[in-house]
Each structure stands twice: as C-alpha cells, then as structure tokens.
C-alpha cells in the first residue's frame, strides 16, 4: 500500500514538472510584449536614476521572479563581464612595473601557468625577468639555494651580474631553464643524503706521539684541527696538505673555534690560546681555569669557556690581545663538557647529567633540563631547540623555553660524543665509531614512529668519533683513528660509486691520493685512555 502511494505521488510530481516545463516553453515562444521597446527604454531611464543600492535591490527582486533557465542565461553573459585582464590593462597603460610586482609574488608553478595565459602576460614575465627574481628570492631566504649558487657558480648571474670575458647579459630564457635545473640538483642532493651516496676523502693526520683528532672546524678553503699530540694543524681543502702546524700547548688540544682573524683553542693544559689565522702566530694566552678546558664558543665580542674544574667562564673579547673575564658561572657538580650560547641564553652540559640554562646578558641562572640517565658529552643550541648527546647512548631534543624533552633518539651503541643540527637534520658521532644522520623535522613530529627517524648510518671511521661539522653538502669528522673524513653528498646520482681518497699529509712533504671503490676496512684499535670529559 505504501509502495502504491509512493508511486502515485511520484507520477503526480512528474506531471506537474512536465506542466511547468511546458509553461516555460510556451512562455519562451510567446510573442513579444506590446510596447516592449518603449517600456524597456523608460524603465532603463528610471533605473539609472536609482542609487547603487536601489539598483541592486531591484535587480535582486527581478532575479527572484525568474526561472532557473533564465538565471542560467544571465550567468553566461555575467561571468565574462566580471572577468578582467588587470595584468594586460596595467601593461597597456604603461604600468608594467606594478604588473611585475604583482606577478613577482608567485611561486614557480603559478609563474609557469601565468606565462601560458596570453602574450601580454608572457611579455610581463619575460620583460620583468621574473624567473631571475624568483631565483634571487630563493637564494636570499634559503641556505641551500645560497650555498648551491656559490658552489655551482651561477651566483654571478644574479643580482648585479658579474660577467667575465665579454659574456653577454643573460636573458629571461636562461633563468627559465636554470630554475628547474636547480630544483633537480637539490633533489639529487637530498636523495644522496637519504641513500648514503657520497664521495669520501680521508686525511691521515700522522700524529707524532699519541693519535687522535679531538676537534675541528672547516670552511671552503681549509680545515683547522686540534690533535691529541698537543698541536693545531691547518689543512688545505683542495690539496689535503697540511699547510701549518701551531705548537705551544703542553696538553691535548680539546676544543677550538676560529673566525677570519683568530683561532681560539682550549687544552688539557688548562690554558686558552689565541692565534693569528693568517700567520699562525700566538697572540695571547688566557689563564683562568685550573683544569682542562673542555669546550669554548665565541661570537660578537663574547666568549664562553667551560672546564673540568666544573666552572663556566664568560669573557669579553675586545680584540685578540684584549680579553677580560666578565663572570664565572658555577652550579654544576661535575666537569662541564660543553657550552653554547646566543644573545638570550648560555647553555651548559655536564657529567652530572644536567643541562643548565643561564641568561646571557645578566648571567643569572634560568633553569635545569633533566632527563639524561648518565653524563652529557655534547650539545648544540639554536632557535629555541637544544639537542644533547650522552653516555646513556641517547640523543635528546629539548624546548629551551619550557625545559620539556620533545624526543629521545636511540640508535648508538656507545657514548654520543658529538652532535650538530640545522633546520633539517641532526648529525651525531659516537664512541661506537658510527655517524648517524637523523631527520629533525620528523623527530619534532610526535606522530612519527621512532624507527623512521634515522636516515643513514655511516661506518667509515675505525675508531671513536670525537668531533664533526656539517653543512648542506658535506660532513667533516675526526676520530681517535687519527683521521679526518670528508663525506661529500654534492652532485651524485644513485649510479655513482662511493670512492675513498686517502691522503698521507705532513707539512712540506708530497702526498699521494689513492682511489678505491669501497670504504676502508675496519681495523682493531688499542682502546684509548679514559676521556677527559666526565660522563
């Protein structure tokens, strides 16, 4: 019974719909209204006398009285009326600079689509050199793009072009082709990091008495290393030759940092020494700590050092020869193994299992970060994030403002001795001889599974990893095996082989480079003496 009623209703509805359609059809074929033209002209004259709001209101009333097919017709000629080629109009009116400014905010995909709209839009893109400006914008705001522009040499075609040997000014099409090439280059570099494709260069330091490279720092031209044999050695990045040996410390060189003018080193002899980068001359010796100087950092006229004597010293550096102590920070109950700082916080880590935070300007204590189960050997602080490594074999990521531990990374088998991170990656080195690369972005996401965080493990060192530094293209590390290794991830594909370059270098002595198709075999080392850090 219900089914019959339903069918009846449906049939009735259909009949009514057909009647409506018929009425609409008949109305559409109906002859024109008498005096239509005269009445419409009068109406338009009256309409023009209305205010804008009154015009809108009356049109809205008209639309409400129309059928759907009438509204559809109105829409078909209304849409084109609403579309305006504002870029083309700006261009024809001599306001191309404004059009270029507007399109200059587009990303690469939108810019590619814009070129295909019409000739006028393509003309604005090409004449405004918008692909060049997009590359320049990327170079200014992205470290990888900036570094790659220097490495690949196309930086000279940006901003004010530095042309050589009668080169012609580069035009729009050059930058239009350059942009996707850069993107492919960056994609290859990222793939190399993920898959472990790299070229390996090895510097054999040939220490005289005791072996081991405790610290290093590098730039495009040189590597400066501090060795267990009490020396500082400077290496040429291109030839891998040792160009200078600085002597003066009576103990192992445990930490160093340099800028364009000076090298500052800390030693197990309890002294801090300042050297000239250019000449290697000893400029100053600072005496304050009563035990080994384990770590130091300096920037913008401030230096912070820490020691096995459990103290942290804050120094004012007016010049290499004018350095005075400003404040001594105490609070740790064991050796302070590492410090880092910026203009807001000084951060220190100790063998007492704690990380302490101090205000940089006042040197007042702020908070303690608790979580590691054993002593802390290394940390880095940057952009509100602290990453620390410990002899509990773990790495912890902290929010410095609230003191919360955001993530624990597990994977090393022994003490995590050195750690660095940037906006994308954490790179750690440990006493298990391994260097691990971690995905920082994933690590900061609490939903990411723990087994997805380690991107790659490098096992080329045959001894404990003491120190490392990295950038977008490479890792440079040092070890108790008396070597410095350079892992280069730039411009390789999955088909490329990993090669090892072994260099035996001493000052003023020729060297040989041997190419191999696999990493050097691990060899058993005599265990080194106990480390100076208290962990």
UniProtKB/TrEMBL annotation:
Residues 526-535 have a biased composition (Pro residues). InterPro entries: Beta-TrCP_D, F-box-like_dom_sf, F-box_dom, WD-F-box_domain-protein, WD40/YVTN_repeat-like_dom_sf, WD40_PAC1, WD40_repeat_CS, WD40_repeat_dom_sf. Keywords: Repeat, Ubl conjugation pathway, WD repeat. It comes from the Eukaryota. WD repeats lie at residues 206-245, 246-285, 286-325, 329-358, 369-408, 409-448. One of its GO terms (molecular function) is protein dimerization activity. Residues 515-525 have a biased composition (Low complexity). The keyword RNA-binding does not apply. Pfam families: Beta-TrCP_D, F-box-like, WD40. Residues 500-535 are annotated as: Disordered. The keyword Acyltransferase does not apply. Residues 98-134 form the F-box domain. Transmembrane segments: none annotated. Signal peptide: none annotated. SMART domains: Beta-TrCP_D (SM01028), WD40 (SM00320). PROSITE patterns: FBOX (PS50181), WD_REPEATS_1 (PS00678), WD_REPEATS_2 (PS50082), WD_REPEATS_REGION (PS50294). Gene3D superfamilies: 1.20.1280.50, 6.10.250.1840, YVTN repeat-like/Quinoprotein amine dehydrogenase. This is F-box domain-containing protein. It comes from Didymodactylos carnosus.
């Amino acid at each position: 019974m219900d089914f019959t009623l339903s069918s009846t209703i449906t049939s009735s509805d259909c009949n009514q719909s057909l009647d409506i359609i018929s009425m609409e059809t008949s109305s559409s074929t109906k002859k024109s209204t008498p005096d239509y033209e005269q009445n419409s002209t009068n109406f338009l004259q009256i309409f023009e006398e209305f205010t804008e709001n009154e015009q809108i209101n009356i049109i809205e009333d008209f639309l409400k009285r129309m059928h759907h097919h009438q509204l559809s017709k109105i829409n078909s000629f209304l849409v084109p009326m609403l579309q305006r080629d504002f870029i083309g109009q700006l261009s024809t009116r001599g306001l191309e600079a404004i059009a270029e400014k507007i399109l200059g905010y587009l990303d690469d995909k939108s810019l590619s689509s814009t070129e295909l709209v019409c000739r006028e839009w393509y003309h604005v893109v090409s004449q405004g050199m918008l692909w060049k400006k997009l590359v320049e914008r990327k170079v200014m705001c992205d470290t990888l793009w900036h570094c790659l522009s220097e490495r690949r040499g196309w930086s000279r075609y940006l901003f004010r072009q530095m042309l050589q040997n009668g080169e012609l000014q580069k035009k729009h099409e050059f930058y239009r082709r350059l942009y996707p090439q850069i993107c492919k280059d960056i994609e290859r570099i990222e793939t190399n990091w993920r898959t472990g494709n790299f070229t390996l260069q090895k510097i054999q330091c040939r220490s005289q008495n005791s072996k081991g490279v405790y610290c290093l720092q590098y730039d495009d031209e040189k590597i400066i290393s501090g060795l267990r044999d009490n020396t500082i050695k400077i290496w040429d990045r291109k030839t891998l030759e040792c160009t200078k040996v600085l002597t003066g410390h009576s103990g192992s060189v445990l930490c160093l940092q340099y800028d364009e003018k000076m090298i500052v080193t800390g030693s197990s002899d309890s002294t801090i020494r300042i050297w000239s980068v250019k000449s290697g001359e000893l400029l100053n010796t600072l005496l304050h700590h009563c035990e080994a100087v384990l770590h130091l950092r300096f920037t913008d006229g401030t230096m912070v050092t820490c020691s096995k004597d459990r103290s942290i010293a804050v120094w004012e550096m007016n010049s290499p020869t004018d350095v005075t102590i400003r404040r001594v920070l105490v609070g740790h109950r064991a050796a302070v193994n590492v410090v880092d700082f910026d203009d807001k916080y000084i951060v220190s880590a100790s063998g007492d299992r704690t990380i302490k935070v101090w205000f940089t300007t006042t040197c007042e204590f702020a908070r303690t970060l608790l979580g590691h189960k054993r002593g802390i050997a290394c940390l880095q602080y940057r952009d509100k994030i602290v990453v620390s490594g410990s002899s509990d074999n773990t790495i912890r990521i902290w929010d410095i403002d609230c003191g919360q531990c955001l993530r624990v990374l597990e994977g090393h088998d022994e003490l995590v001795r050195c750690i660095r991170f940037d906006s994308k990656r954490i790179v750690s080195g440990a006493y298990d001889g391994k260097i691990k690369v971690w995905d920082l972005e994933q690590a900061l996401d609490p939903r990411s599974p723990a087994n997805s965080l380690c991107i790659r493990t490098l096992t080329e060192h045959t001894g404990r990893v003491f120190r490392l530094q990295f950038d977008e293209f490479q890792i440079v590390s040092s070890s108790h095996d008396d070597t410095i290794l350079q892992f280069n991830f730039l411009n390789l594909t999955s088909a490329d082989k990993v090669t090892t370059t072994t260099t035996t270098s001493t000052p003023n002595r020729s060297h040989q480079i041997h190419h191999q198709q696999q990493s050097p075999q691990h060899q058993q080392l005599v265990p080194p003496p106990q480390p100076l850090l208290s962990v």
